[in-house]
Structures
1.
Amino acid sequence: MKDLQSDVCRLALVQAEPLLFDKAGCVQKALDTIEECAAQGAELVVFPELFIPGYPIGMNFGFSMGKRTEAGREDWMRYSDASIVVDDPSFRQLAEAAVSYQLYLSIGFSERDAVNGTLYNSNVIFEPDGSWKVHRKLKPTGSERLVWGDANRDYFPITETPWGPIGSLICWESYMPLARTALYQKGITIYLSPNTNDNPEWQATIQHIAIEGKCYFINADMLVRKSSYPKDLNAQSEIDALPDIVCRGGSCVIDPYGHYLTEPVWDEEAIICADLDMRLPAACKMEHDAVGHYSRPDVLELIVKE
């Protein structure tokens, strides 16, 4: 890796289509893609939310108010079996890839707790020395709450890098102002946002956050097609009602001024490479630092329970 302080970060932002419900397939696709990113000189590789084993958009797993179905339970169990337990062999493969290619790797995954069996919508950042930090989504959105539990630990982990501290909030966590501030207070220079949000208004949100936090905003979305889903799920009628492209992507990089460093990519897989000028996050704080000189800690205070 570069020296402890580096003015440029070579980023590879991956907009890829997962192999839904297929843990081994998703892990192998991730490993192949990481190799391709490394060949392009990547030092930081970022994948979307729940890349392993994919985000099952449109499925309800048989839940309705006060009721469940056995068919839905079977699909949920299949998804649970495809989820990753931290430090299991699949997890280790990804950690070893970060070491092998000497890069930082961020990837979203469905985490199955090793003790209680609850699923969590999680994101992990692997480091070149083989260590890692996991962040669990604080509040799953909408009916996600029927599949994944609220985070019970790993709220705001920060990874120290040659380009300053980096951290992640998953998808709509970025609509939680206090959660954003918790990251700002830790001095992040790169804000990772693994998500599944292709709504046009999301683009305005991410530009605002980059300006507010004076950081690079890495908008990591995925491509999901109707054909991504296994053909033998019990929820086939739900899947049949989906459009051919279920999630269009829109992955991009926003600089600390709120400008597109890379334009959004729609409706296709892509590896989006960018060189981040890491002098900008500090330079942009000359007139506005939300947790520094442009704050009033005597009036407003955030208390974070780590």
Note: DSSP finds seven helices and 14 strands in the chain.
2.
Amino acid sequence: MTTDALIDIKGVTHAYQTAEGPLPVLDNLNVSVNEGGFAAVVGPSGCGKSTLTRLIAGLMKPDTGEVWLHGARVKSPRSTVGMAFQNPVLLEWRSILKNVMLPLEIVPTKLTNTQKEDRARELLSLVGLEGFEDKRPSELSGGMRQRASLCRSLVHKPEVLILDEPFGALDAFTREDLWQTMHALRAEEPFTGVLITHDLRESIFLADQVLVLSGRPATTQYVMDIPTDAPRTLDDLYTPEAAERLNVLRHQIEIAQGRASDEGEAA
């Protein structure tokens, strides 16, 4: 493992107990994400991607192996982890502003009430929701609700942001718009990110590193590093380099699904 890794998953094996017996999900999984890095995790459906996020957040413990965050072993839920899901799960009886402020009511903080509100308003403005602070969730579109959910996950300035398919239920145009919003958020609100996604275009646009998990029980099958030397635009998804990356990842997914051999794999 790298010495500057903020997230360090070492030899993790995990199985769920079912009526038919143990269901192995992860097998000797090793994952390392450097501080400030953004890793996208892709793989076949049911291979344990969401299990991985719960282990990082401390919501569950592995059967064997260790999960470390910033040099401390994860043994319980961590307040330094923010999470956003496919369903924004906003509370209808609270305004958008109050929904975003919710973590600040739970996570210990020295901020005054005014500072908490200012922090929430700052994030809402950053994602284009200025003027919608007093609206209820039902008054916003799906994309706007997801923007509010992202603000809520970042309002307490977590070290790690876990995104579990947050854009999967959105239409293509809204999804691409939110990809660009994510880059703006990273520039203004630095964090270490882990994205679970089934969208390979999303993975290469947002991430610095794409991790392909094998079929269940999953281990790390392939790692692709994405250059980060320049700002990304949607046009970057239509370059020969992007096409080659997508072809390699598609082939890796086929291997993970048992639909291809790894002989002659692209470099």
Note: The chain is about 35% helix and 25% strand.
3.
Amino acid sequence: MPPDETRPATPFEEPRRSLLISSLPREATVSIALFAAVWQIMSYLAPTLGIPAFAIPGLGRIAKSLATITPLDVAVTLGRVLLSLVVSFAIGVAVAIVMYLSESVEKYLRPMVRILMAVPVVSWILFAVLWFKGVEFRIVFVLVVVCAPVFTVDALDNMREVSKELKQMIRSFRPTSLQFFHKLMLPAITPGLITSWKITLSLAIRVVTIAELVGAVTGIGHQLSVAQELFSVADVFAWTLVLVVLLFFLEALLVRLETRVLRWRA
């Protein structure tokens, strides 16, 4: 039913409306404008500070570099990230379910998961180069081995936090294991899983560029490597800006999905 436009707004609705409409966009715009102004000033002062002029390019040079961005490289990197995250999520949640169902299995797997999380990304890249020949498989392998443990730990912790009363109530109806997870556990851990996606998404964006530096001939990481070899700081800044915008875009999609899936919490 559409809201009654003649009804006066309550004291709780007006602050919420003004907050959503004005505060965040204004603050974000001011922050970005200040950063751009400081960067432009630093580009002018760089020679006097003993910094090479090319090391801090002006906004005009960065804009020219942005105009040369190749959409194919952006699409390739985005595809690698999304594919790896989907695979990581499936593996991570599956392992978390197995660990939740069996305490003995958890005792053996949890230390291994912690070990995987402790290994640096650079080490995984070196292992991937030594173990696999396919460049695409190397990149996906590095992303999955870094992101899947995060999904596992988050999913398992969220399962543990479901109240015992709810579990006992559901089990009183004698559900199957599939019904137990479908009717109770999945809805209960969905908010935590979405939060885990937000965290892992930013992690994947950072890791994919490093993985693409080794052997890849396409993608944002490869273009960053080329820009580094050419000492083109403007290109490095432009591709970095593309990564930031890509992350914000994907996070915005996750927020919209969260709002839709968790509308029952409103």
Note: Residues 24 and 109 are 43 Å apart (CA to CA).
4.
Amino acid sequence: MIHARGCRAAATTPIVSDLVITAFESGIVRAMKTSQSATFRRNDGCALDLDWISQLRVNRNASDRRAASLAARRSVKKEYQAAWLVQAIKCIDLTTLGGDDTPGRVERLCLKALRPLRGDLLAALGISDLRVGAVCVYHEMIAPALRVLGSSGLPIAAVSTGFPAGLASLETKLREVELSVAAGASEIDIVITRQHVLTGNWQALYDETRAYRNACGDAHMKTILATGDLLTLENVARASWACMMAGADFIKTSTGKEGVNATIPVALTMVRTIREYAERTGFQVGFKPAGGVSSAKAALQYLTLMKEELGIEWMQPHLFRIGASSLLTDIERQLEHFVTGHYSAAHRHAMP
């Protein structure tokens, strides 16, 4: 129950490379070699169980203590930390959702998504191929993203259903989903109608989410709860369950536009609903924290949470994503520090 320097000389590169390879080949990191294109059974959903939803409870004090323990815990270090940070890159939904987005900016973002680290860092780390999990954009920017990504296989995720407030008519929101899928989006990030949660109308939330899932077709659906608007962890838990029962492939914390976005207590509540849902139905649902995840330290905390609460498989991009724009900059700086022993200025790793 839910209760500014370059890399070291080439002569030293093999040593650094060997350290990282050793990290990937040992213990829990060995399992991280799962392919980024790993296939898994989609969540078909199930009938809405109002009795189950109504009896959900969350112990807020216990959740806060657990969250604090994750923040205070000694992190993975040295080559192991480098390996985990590389894994975090694979799980990033590289995002641009600004009113000043342009096709040129999106195209540059997509190039960064295909090559998230500089070539000298990749060589020093012993990595030949590295990409982020997906690129996330507005509907109007799907076409520019496709021009760069083409047949690369890197997913394009489009925010939809009246993002971020979700207050357009249902007919309009369903049509928006259909248009984004037709335009080439292989993932759709939908937003729920928060009033359904705040008024306890779980049937309406279920029906709405089910309609979005049907409109998505073969595109995977990430359901944004906008947890900063839901007031309580019990509301977060109940909304998570209703959306998973309706067929959500991922549940996502936030649009990034709320006053409060992703937090560890909220993430803990959501991943525990995912665990219980998998135990009851056999379906694996993914998790995506978004909004405010801008540091390598925060990314490591979320990876640790996934490992300890759900297991190593949920540290893979087919079940875990981080919605972020500036996070990649800090991870790249940390990896450069691992390779060279020096921190570089942030502008050396500028995003588009």
Note: The beta strands are 92-95, 134-137, 156-159, 187-191, 220-224, 250-252, 286-288, 322-324.
